[in-house]
Design brief:
Elements lengths: L3 E4 L16 E5 L13 E4 L13 E4 L8 H11 L4 E5 L6 H16 L3 E6 L2 E7 L2 E4 L6 E6 L3 E7 L5 E7 L8 E2 L5 E7 L1 E7 L4
Parallel strand pairs: 1-2, 1-5, 2-3, 3-4, 5-6
Antiparallel strand pairs: 6-7, 7-14, 8-13, 9-12, 9-14, 10-11, 10-13
């Protein structure tokens, strides 16, 4: 499935970013400095963190420095306008916790629109689940964590070290941290509410 890739100005470690001809790559301000050899389709931002002059051979959308949203959010809106339904965000986690939290909110924004978003850094994936069932295949190893971003969420987890059945988890208590895969298909069902799932691919 075609995807929209967004590059932010945050940390990049061991992630290999793959782009097909049908994918759309948006660099958000300083994310342009991390493009490598990738073909950029759109550069967007207020350009307060990009190094060097702006390119003259790609589409550019300049934003006002005084705005209510972030460059990443505006990039997501551009991807939605162009018809994309899956969004992969790189360089959107890092030293500034407020930007990391804002980008998790961006995943919730996408989910509320019926779209899918993935925050990826150093083989760690963050995604949002809402009123749905999600299955991770038996190749996954290591830890995963699940946090409620609703006041309360009703959660079932099967085929993991710690299983729960229609358990109410709240956004004020980290019950879902550090569960473990056990070599079986792990099923996570959110019967009610919105949760953030974090898992790592490095051991798969």
């Amino acid at each position: 499935m075609n995807k929209c890739i967004l590059l932010g100005a945050g940390e990049y470690k061991n992630d290999k970013i793959e782009k097909s001809e049908s994918d759309f790559l948006i660099c958000c301000d300083g994310g342009y400095d991390h493009r490598g050899v990738l073909k950029v389709d759109l550069l967007i931002g207020d350009f307060d963190s990009i190094n060097g002059p702006l390119p003259n051979d790609i589409e550019i959308k300049k934003l006002n420095k005084i705005k209510d949203t972030t460059d990443i959010f505006e990039g997501i809106k551009e991807g939605i306008k162009r018809g994309y339904k899956r969004f992969y965000l790189y360089g959107c986690l890092g030293n500034r916790i407020e930007h990391s939290l804002a980008n998790i909110q961006n995943l919730i924004y996408l989910k509320n629109k019926g779209l899918e978003g993935f925050l990826i850094q150093n083989n760690t994936i963050i995604r949002v689940l809402k009123n749905e069932k999600f299955v991770l295949d038996s190749s996954y190893k290591g830890y995963f964590s699940l946090f409620s971003f609703s006041n309360s969420s009703v959660v079932t987890i099967k085929n993991a070290k710690y299983e729960i059945d229609k358990k109410v988890i709240k956004n004020s208590f980290p019950l879902g941290i550090d569960n473990e895969f056990i070599g079986q298909e792990t099923e996570i069902k959110i019967s009610k509410g919105t949760c953030v799932l974090i898992y790592n691919l490095k051991d798969c």
